[in-house]
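Memo to structure team: turn this sequence into structure tokens by end of day. - J.P.
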Amino acid sequence: MDALIAASARALAAGDALGALKRVALRDDPPALALRGIAMAQLGEHARARELLRRAARAFGPQEELAHARCVLAEAEVDLALRELRGSPRGLAAAAGALARHGDHANAMHARLVAARRFLLLGRLADAAVTLQGLDPRQLPPALAAVAELAAAELALRSLRCAPARAALARADQAAYRAGIPSLIAEVAEARAALDRPAARQLAGDEVRALRLEEVEAVLGSGALVLDACRRGLASAGAWVPLARRPILFALAFALAQAWPRDVERDALIAAAFRTREPDETHRARLRVEIGRLRALARDIAGIEATARGFVLRPRASEVVVLAPPIEGDQASLQALLADGAAWSTSALALALDASQRTVQRALSALESAGRVRAIGQTRARRWVAAPLVDFTTILLLPAALPGA
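Reply from structure team:
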């Protein structure tokens, strides 16, 4: 490694992308191409960075396995920044294996962190936990340690374990300051600030109260029957009844929980579940069927009884609590994903939300009409961005953030 390449690498490690570029901007040898690609990625020029990294990987070839693996790792991180989530993780896993074989343990751990962050974006919390298992941040350089603690904190938050999340973020803050990288320090500070923002709304009749994540965790652990409209399900004493894929049953459960301890008229339930203002006998028959399905799903935590007017919820717990998203609307989860400020493709959003691409496109069109998101680029290169939702944390709105996940 010549002096300019070494100096450029040291500058990149310290977060000085411009200093690194000054040393290798006019060179086209493979190491310089790789360093230029990483520097461009740090400056936010991700498309150009990916092109440079691919050129460097081709130039290194299979004979230089270690250098090639480092380029694959850097490209995988660029793909993560671009929210290109459709690719197979096998290439990254192979690169991690090659890095470990050649003794580059820091970059091998970095590859594991990239894989874990990808799983977190996709809502695959169990896979993220397995990937992070056994990874000791104390054995990593400060910058990587901060990233590892951030990933551990997000995993804890998505599982609604606030105390471990706060501890991980405190360690991430210390590691970021040891690394001395301003962008990393700012990212940790933003993550810590999110914990003190409202994460949900508790609805009680006409009264609405904003809750922070710790308060949401306390409500879910209180033993009450919780209608969780953030993640669309019923929770009580550790039991979870998912209704995210059953929109009619969720609408019925929401109406019954909001009215508790009173009953709800049949026509009101029909309007909530079937979106009609002129119910007939077919709607009433269908309502009885859907109430039967909801009763069967929730039988361990609540009962549903018929009354003269309609139906009433009879929880096994002493009270019913209704949690609503901190923002209103059917596109709350979509807005939560876009709130990180990154540019997302519709295919990546569909993967993260476990929805069809056409459904995501329709929701984006509605949000664009309302001025909440905007598109950049054209055709296949089109990406969607939104201003960060700085008034509250969006953890509860993200996909697969389920109790016990």
